Amino acid sequence: MGKIYDALEKADKQEKPAEGGRAMPERQRTEKAPEENVVQFVGNALKHSDTRLDINLITYHRPQSVEAELFKVLRTNLLFPAEGNPPKSILVTSAVPGDGKSFVSANLAISIAAGLEDYVLLMDCDIRRPSLHTCFGYGTTRGLSDYLNGQAPLETLLHKTPFPRLTLLPGGRPPRNPTELLSSKRMRTMLDEVVHRYDDRFIIIDSPPPSMAAEVAAIAKQVDGVLMVVRSGKTPRSAVTDTIEQIGKEKILGIVLNQAQQSVKKYYGYSKGYYRE
């Protein structure tokens, strides 16, 4: 597991500027600087224009929008709690599919990484239907499922994103036995490593709804807290109650209300819901 730590440390060092200059990845320092709005991904070494980033990464495409500001509010509430220490590991889930958990996971991770000193590891644990890799401009790529299957070392699956201090672990290729993989000792050991060893970064985990994947409740026990995403006017109240019971009320950090019509939107001249996916 020391290799995982070394890989993240190496990625972090590539982001930190040297005195009087701007940092570039090691292999680029002797080459021509990349064009503006072109980003270098560590992992498969492909260059991607920012136009390939999902339009729903609003904290990047529209950082001054009301939606992006609301993610800053969410970030502040999490990082500066009224009492106690901020949660370093956060699992984001929903009561039913389609509520926007991946949308919230990605934008929250970007918002935290946009700070001056906080590093983030964003993990796609929804290996049945992984989606975060496409949000960040990747096609089919290896990820968590490949590690759990023993087909690749974890440190080779970590990808840099266009956002300083944000590293992505994609979900990988959908396996035939997702429940067994996510419930395995290998998964528990890996989570324990990234959650407890890396005290210099936040861990954001995008997971499937507990109603669709029984192992989510077990994963939730290993993190500091859980954010639930609920779609306004759509998610059944009974489904929310059942999910909270499965996870444990003491683990719930709060609920993000998605696609809600609120007066603050009208104040700023917006008519659509808070968040969209």
Protein described:
The protein has about 280 residues and is α/β, with parallel strands linked by helices. It has one domain: Rossmann fold, CATH 3.40.50.300. The chain has helices at about 1-15, 60, 65-80, 100-115, 130-135, 145-150, 180, 185-195, 215-220, 235-245, 265, and strands at about 40, 45-50, 90-95, 120-125, 160, 165-170, 200-205, 225-230, 250-260. A 7-stranded mixed sheet has the order 5-6-4-7-3-8-9, with helices on both faces. Helix 3 (about 65-80) packs across helix 4 (about 100-115). Mean pLDDT is about 80; it is low at about 15-50 and about 265-275.
CATH architecture: 3-Layer(aba) Sandwich
* SSE sequence, one letter per element: HEEHHEHEHHEEHHEHEHEH
Please outline the major beta sheet: 7 strands, mixed
Report the radius of gyration as a whole number of Å.
Answer: 18 Å
CATH class: Alpha Beta
Question: What do we call the CATH homologous superfamily?
Answer: P-loop containing nucleotide triphosphate hydrolases
Structural key phrases:
7-stranded mixed β-sheet; 277 residues; globular; disordered C terminus; single chain; two-stranded antiparallel sheet; alpha/beta; 11 helices; 16% strand; Rossmann fold
